[in-house]
Design brief:
By secondary structure, the protein is mainly α. It contains nine helices and no strands. 81% of the residues lie in helices and 0% in strands.
């Protein structure tokens, strides 16, 4: 009787757990992500927080700054999902044990969890340091979840795409900008609405549509980006 192979989600979770174990062993890299977020928060709070602009003049600015902090904090780690495999020489072995779509799903899940950890620490600190009031916490949570998944899946896919390129950092920045702007703009708009009151649903639907399209595209192109 042939041995039953693990399912898609169990193998994807195994890849996610592998990445988590690797990152936890590299505590300096993890610490640098949160140190960057803390430094950015401190500088922003000094410039536009209680010592700068009054609260009534900061609604749109606060929403934009929050996503700038989240994006650049995540960008210090998320794009390394597949690059790390090539640098450590484990990419070939990973290709043999799991198809590209499984590897991409596991790494995207790890990046999403890492983004949520960044957001869990950054958003409350941002709210306290900048005296930022959110009238719809549930709306803000929905924005962070939808925006975080889109950011994670696109960054993970692009990491697979540029992992073996010579100027991978420059290539990632050039390719990611036009792909992530359509995600960040509705995320900022929905964050503004969450801070001022209830989110009307339109930017959330845009984010959900973006996430669905990005997930489908990554699923269909995973083998081309990683295995070939």
């Amino acid at each position: 009787m042939s041995e039953r192979r693990p399912g898609f989600f169990s193998r994807a979770w195994a890849v996610c757990a592998k990445d988590a174990a690797q990152e936890l062993r590299r505590r300096v890299a993890i610490a640098s992500i949160f140190f960057f977020a803390a430094t950015a928060l401190a500088l922003v709070s000094y410039a536009v927080g209680p010592f700068g602009l009054p609260p009534e003049a900061r609604s749109r600015l606060d929403a934009s700054l929050l996503w700038v902090i989240l994006f650049f904090s995540a960008a210090t780690s998320l794009p390394r999902a597949f690059v790390r495999e090539e640098e450590t020489g484990t990419g070939l072995g990973l290709r043999k044990v799991a198809p590209g779509v499984v590897v991409l799903a596991g790494k995207a899940l790890f990046n999403f969890l890492l983004f949520l950890a960044i957001a869990v620490l950054s958003v409350p600190a941002f709210s306290v340091l900048l005296e930022w009031q959110v009238r719809s916490p549930a709306g803000l949570a929905a924005v962070v979840l939808l925006g975080g998944w889109g950011l994670s899946i696109v960054s993970t896919f692009l990491s697979a795409l540029v992992a073996r390129a010579g100027q991978r950092n420059v290539l990632f920045l050039v390719v990611s900008f036009p792909l992530l702007v359509p995600l960040l703009l509705p995320a900022i708009a929905a964050t503004i609405q969450a801070s001022e009151g209830a989110v009307d649903g339109t930017p959330l639907r845009v984010l959900a549509a973006y996430d669905g399209a990005a997930t489908c595209a990554a699923y269909l192109l995973a083998a081309v980006a990683w295995e070939d």
